Design the sequence.
């Protein structure tokens, strides 16, 4: 096998003639803003998830903010969530005037640990927001039970988990799902997001909030902003959604092949991703665990070999400078999350990888060892 350096990116959006034709059709229609194509995409994505409603917005962050507001989250409220995620998980809560409360994660899959959440519930708690990190579903059925018992809203941050399943059910259909369509995600609309829900009232309020809080044109009964998706984005989304399952299957196959190759090499200090039996991990990221003292050197060696990597995430949210400035998360007891931030390293896993690419990545890891 060749060991010559090549260039393998950590992520690669896949856009082809179907997306181009869909965009051109919208341009020729003259209806560029939110319209019939957005409505069609909402129905398609909701059906894919297994939810009654889909409410499209212009980013994954917007989906989180609008979903929280649709559940009535506001000043004085608390939302329990994970410290090990992209910062939008927490800033969306702050944007609603509420306070994020951080519970520790499950060491098995890096997701919020239901057993750590219940002890943090107070009379100010309004919602729980687990994240399906890296494409692996959280223990969402347990969160569903917990929220039902305590009368709390369940908001799923599924930004990285399009098509992931827990106990045979797709994420985004347990509580109120929030997905991102940023270009690096398993499917994209360029920028965009969507809320999925089986709750008629949550869907109704989400549609109002995303459109300046108006139920009738120029009559603003609620507070809202412009969170709308365009028909241009929705057209791309429909074309991408038709390919999502094939892409997810390619990610899963690449992950299985890469994990097998790495495990066969018996690389000391490197552990491949875990998948809970019965769950479907759609591998938005293939995130290995590396001995902290080896991570920097390994990342450098892979870069020199032409293999892109990323650290998702090097600093827990509660340790971010802006959180300290705002006085959010001080004293959070999250040792598992803190340890994870020092050991994770994401490798390429996107559908455009070839078998040779996967073998090369594994070879580079083995050479480092």
Sequence:
């Amino acid at each position: 096998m060749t060991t010559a350096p090549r260039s393998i990116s950590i992520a690669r959006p896949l856009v082809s003639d179907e997306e181009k034709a869909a965009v051109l059709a919208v341009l020729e229609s003259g209806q560029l803003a939110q319209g019939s194509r957005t409505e069609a995409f909402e129905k398609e994505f909701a059906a894919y998830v297994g939810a009654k409603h889909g409410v499209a917005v212009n980013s994954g962050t917007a989906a989180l903010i609008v979903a929280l507001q649709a559940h009535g989250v506001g000043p004085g409220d608390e939302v329990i969530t994970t410290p090990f995620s992209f910062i939008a998980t927490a800033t969306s809560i702050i944007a609603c005037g509420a306070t994020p409360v951080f519970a520790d994660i499950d060491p098995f899959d890096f997701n919020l640990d239901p057993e750590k959440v219940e002890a943090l519930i107070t009379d100010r708690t309004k919602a729980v927001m687990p994240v399906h990190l890296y494409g692996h579903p959280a223990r969402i059925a347990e969160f569903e039970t917990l929220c039902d018992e305590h009368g709390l809203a369940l908001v799923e941050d599924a930004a990285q988990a399009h098509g992931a399943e827990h106990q045979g059910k797709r994420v985004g259909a347990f509580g109120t799902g929030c997905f991102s369509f940023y270009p690096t995600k398993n499917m994209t609309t360029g920028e965009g997001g969507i809320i999925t829900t089986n709750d008629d009232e949550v869907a109704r309020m989400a549609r109002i909030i995303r459109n300046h809080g108006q139920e009738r044109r120029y009559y603003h009964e609620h507070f809202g902003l412009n969170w709308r998706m365009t028909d241009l984005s929705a057209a791309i989304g429909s074309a991408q959604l038709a390919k999502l399952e094939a892409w997810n299957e390619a990610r899963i196959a690449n992950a299985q092949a890469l994990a097998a190759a790495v495990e066969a090499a018996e690389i000391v200090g490197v552990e491949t991703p875990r998948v809970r039996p019965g769950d479907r991990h759609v591998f938005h990221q293939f995130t290995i665990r590396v001995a902290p003292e080896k991570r920097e050197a390994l990342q450098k060696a892979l870069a020199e070999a032409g293999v892109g990597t990323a650290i998702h995430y090097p600093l827990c949210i509660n340790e971010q400078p802006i959180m300290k400035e705002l006085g959010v998360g001080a004293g959070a007891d999250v040792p598992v999350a803190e340890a994870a931030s020092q050991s994770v390293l994401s490798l390429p896993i996107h559908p455009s990888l070839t078998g040779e690419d996967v073998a090369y990545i594994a070879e580079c890891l083995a050479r480092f060892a």
